[in-house]
Specification:
Blueprint (H helix, E strand, L loop, with lengths): L7 E6 L7 H14 L4 E6 L6 H5 L7 H5 L5 H4 L1 E2 L5 E3 L13 H14 L5 E6 L5 H9 L2 E6 L3 H18 L3 E9 L2 H18 L3 E9 L2 H8 L4 H4 L4 H14 L11 H9 L2
Parallel strand pairs: 1-5, 1-6, 2-4, 2-5, 6-7, 7-8
Antiparallel strand pairs: 3-4
Amino acid sequence: MSRLHPVQVIAVTGGKGGVGKSNVSINLAMALSEMGRRVVVLDADLGLANIDVLLGITSSRNIGDVLSGECTLREVMVEGPGGIKIVPASSGTQHLTHLSPLEHAGLINAFSEISNDLDVLIIDTAAGISEQVLSFARASQEILMVVCDEPTSITDCYAVIKLLNKNHDLFRFRVLANMVRSSEEGRNLFNKLSKVTERFLEVALQYEGSIPFDETVRKAVQRQRPVYEAYPRSKASLAFRQLAQRVDNWPLPTGPRGNLEFFVERLVQH
């Protein structure tokens, strides 16, 4: 029964653009897949679908076609590198929070159909702090905040945490420092962010490590391939492997919160 199969739903977000969220989503997905997990990546940047660009995949269908009942989620999923599956974004479905009852039911059915076929759902959210980004984050069990060492990244990250905390009562956030020059820089970055949050918010931040700045990541992007596949021995790939091992040890959701239907229910709540 699909209801009994727990699925880890992780929203990868960060507020500002350019912090490497899509790269983190794809490479983390690949590292988890290599560990034997069945991973689906949902490109939730509904305005600027960029995962297909990053991977050089073209898809004729997207989540919008699922909502309109033209096809199932399985038919929309595209085979990505390393055995991961991708649900391409659609620029026409900005308003997942304003679905008609029929679309709402369709989305829940779409996800419950595939919930036995996956272990981890990674949601690559859009940049910024739109209502759409907040709904995806609010509906997920885990929120991975990607932050890099520039002031705007820290302030945007703080803004997302504050909104989710104040408006949606979320209090636990996991933080990944991206594109850092050293592990100390990553730790310092986390400390900067947690200093501000401790002063003004009642939240718990957990540090999930860092991904080093690595030239091969840029080279991989130019080749439209994930660094994990193109340069498996690079510093970045090794860091993604370590991150995946940590993620794999996160507690699995139990009870009704653990199923995909619950994720979709929360996603479409007004």
